[in-house]
């Protein structure tokens, strides 16, 4: 398996993988517009894992330095006990092919995103997930703090039928703990085919 950074030329494979993965997602519905490659993907770092010529797992890393844009993407104001420190890394659109789930691919992708965020001196990692999601337990072990989303997803392409967490990881304090847990979950799955040092720091400025 090979882990690399994707671009718009891979949009078809990304769209197909996301659509199939989210068809059976727990506690949510999402429109194609919320999944298919868009301008946010162009401005993000989109990671992908390939098994030969098949894209089997992907995750999007957005770096955001605007509080209002972050709140739009989270669909809630930042009125949490944790102080907002910018820029923030927002991980989303994680998808893994059915036959490869539970094999540590999500943890491998998350580890790459965390290491790149550390290189870029990003202090916080943020994500949202439906309560009871499969990855909730492992994220606790990584050091994520779970904060209750006040409304759930109601405004955008995602619609939640179950309560939603806002998950926050303090990279200045808990990065190594998170990397250790990712390594435990993923082991050695393959090779990283890009050079982290060559990825230029970029900020997402669009909602979609």
What does the model show?
The chain is of the alpha+beta class. It has one domain (2-188): Gcn5-related N-acetyltransferase (GNAT) (Aminopeptidase, 3-Layer(aba) Sandwich), CATH 3.40.630. The chain has seven helices and ten strands. It has helices spanning 11-22, 32-35, 39-43, 67-74, 105-119, 136-142, 171-186, and strands at residues 2-6, 28-30, 45-51, 54-64, 88-96, 124-130, 145-148, 158-160, 164-170, 191-192. Strands 7-9-6-5-4-3-1-10 form an eight-stranded mixed β-sheet. A hairpin with a 2-residue loop joins strand 3 (45-51) and strand 4. Helix 5 (105-119) runs antiparallel to helix 7 (171-186) and helix 6 packs across helix 7 (171-186). The chain is globular, with a radius of gyration of 16 Å.
Can you give me a brief rundown of this structure?
The protein contains 7 helices and 10 strands. By secondary structure, it is α+β, with helices and mostly antiparallel strands.
Question: Level of helix content?
Answer: 25-40%
Q: What's the total number of strands?
A: 10
| Number of domain modules | 1
What is the terminal separation in angstroms? Answer: 30 Å
In spatial order, strands of the major sheet run: 7-9-6-5-4-3-1-10
Shape: globular
Instruction: Output the CATH topology.
Output: Aminopeptidase
CATH class value: Alpha Beta
Portion of residues in beta strands equals 25-35%
Uncertain segments are none
| Helix and strand element order | EHEHHEEHEHEHEEEHE
CA radius of gyration: 16 Å
The major pleated sheet works out as:
8 strands, mixed
CATH superfamily: Gcn5-related N-acetyltransferase (GNAT)
In the CATH classification, which architecture applies? 3-Layer(aba) Sandwich
Structural class: alpha+beta
